[in-house]
Structures are given as C-alpha cells and as structure tokens.
UniProtKB/TrEMBL annotation:
One of its GO terms (biological process) is endosomal transport. It comes from the Eukaryota. Keywords: ATP-binding, Nucleotide-binding. Residues 64-104 form the AAA ATPase AAA+ lid domain. Belongs to the AAA ATPase family. GO terms for molecular function: ATP binding; ATP hydrolysis activity. It comes from Aquarana catesbeiana. This is Uncharacterized protein. The keyword Membrane does not apply. Residues 122-182 form the Spastin/Vps4 C-terminal domain. Residues 10-41 form the ATPase AAA-type core domain.
Amino acid sequence: MSFKCVGVDNEGILVLGATNIPWVLDSAIRRRFEKRIYIPLPEAHARTDMFKLHLGNTAHSLTDADFRDLGKKTNGYSGADISVIVRDALMQPVRKVQSATHFKKVRAKSPLNPNEICDDMLTPCSPGDPNALEMTWVDVPGDKLLEPIVGASDMQRSLANTKPTVNDQDLEKLKKFTEDFGQEG
C-alpha cells in the first residue's frame, strides 16, 4: 500500500514519488505533483501471485491450492510482508537440518552431478522412523546432505509468526488523505 505522486515538467521528464505516509507531505510538495493516487494493499489473487513470485525457481512442494490458501489467509498484508513470510519459510528446511537428531538414507540426485542418482543421501527424519540413524547435521558429509524442500507447512508456520505491518489506523489515515487530496488508483 502506498501513495504514488506524479508530476511532469515542460521537458517531458516524469517525476514519480511514493510514500506510505502521505499526510506528512507539506502543501508545497503536494502542489508540485499533479496526481496523488492511492495504491491499496494487494487483493487475494495478487497475494497468491506474490507468494509464487517470491519463491521463484526454488524447489517446493506447494500446490496451486496451497498458494490460493496463502493468498486468502494474508488479507491486510503488504507485498513486503509477503516477502518476509517467504524468506522465513525458505529458512525452515535449514532449521530442520540444524535441529535434527536423526537422518535417514534416501535415493536422490547427487548434488555434485545432477545426472547421477545416489542411494545414500541423508535427510532429516523423526527418531521413530524405522530407517533413522542417530546423528546431527555436523556428522553428515556435505555431499550427502539432502535438505528438505519448502512445503505448505513451512509457509503456514512462517505466516503464523509474521503479522501484517499495516494497521487499521494507517488505512484510515490513507482513506482520509485520499478523500482530501488524492485519487483512487
């Protein structure tokens, strides 16, 4: 959510400014920008796309339904808030590896040669897993570590620990500023 301020001079140069606190702009600055446009917080479909965008090419097990669910659950979150959630979720597999007390051997692509399949890659597991080997991540050879991929539970855990940074008071101030000086986007 932000305000975009647009001004054009006689040379054809476009000046664009953005702020989340437009009410602190003095009248001289407001006069120099011909348009003041309110850009609201993203809607559910945009938030859904933002989760996908922030994950990029990172391996994950999220489905389209998972992404839609995240989009619905993040009403009131800004694009920056969603970025924080995704960055935190990307760290969840690292945390799993670091806190694991047991690993198990799995069949997976070699990290050194993606064309080679290894039967002895090690990934974190619960102590109750029938193939569990008691060890910590420091005991696992670097070329044998298979880090878990990011999943829906990682995103949900990060979402539960991340609150939106925009509050109702800020939204009311923006609404009032738009009524007094701005335009809807």
